[in-house]
Design a protein that fits this description.
The chain is mainly alpha-helical and about 70 residues long. It has helices spanning about 5-15, 20-25, 30-35, 45-55, and strands spanning about 1-5, 60-65. It is about 50% helix and about 5% strand. The chain is globular, with a radius of gyration of 11 Å.
Length: about 70
């Protein structure tokens, strides 16, 4: 399972909020909700998050084995 816990830590460190993602960077409300629910998002979205936060992918998402 892919989880986005690292994203929330990285955002907090950089002072970025979900409001910032939506209104400053134009990310849709639905995409932010998908991230909050650890639901699948596109690689395009992951790439945008890395660019916005100036970080590698492992500071946005992590893989946790199911079970």
């Amino acid at each position: 399972m892919i989880r986005y816990d690292p994203l929330w830590r990285t955002m907090a460190e950089r002072g970025v909020t979900t409001y910032t993602l939506r209104f400053k960077f134009g990310m849709s409300h639905a995409t932010v909700q998908r991230l909050q629910g650890n639901m699948p998002v596109s690689t395009h979205t992951l790439n945008r998050l890395c660019a916005i936060l100036h970080c590698p992918l492992d500071q946005v998402a992590e893989y946790i084995e199911d079970g």
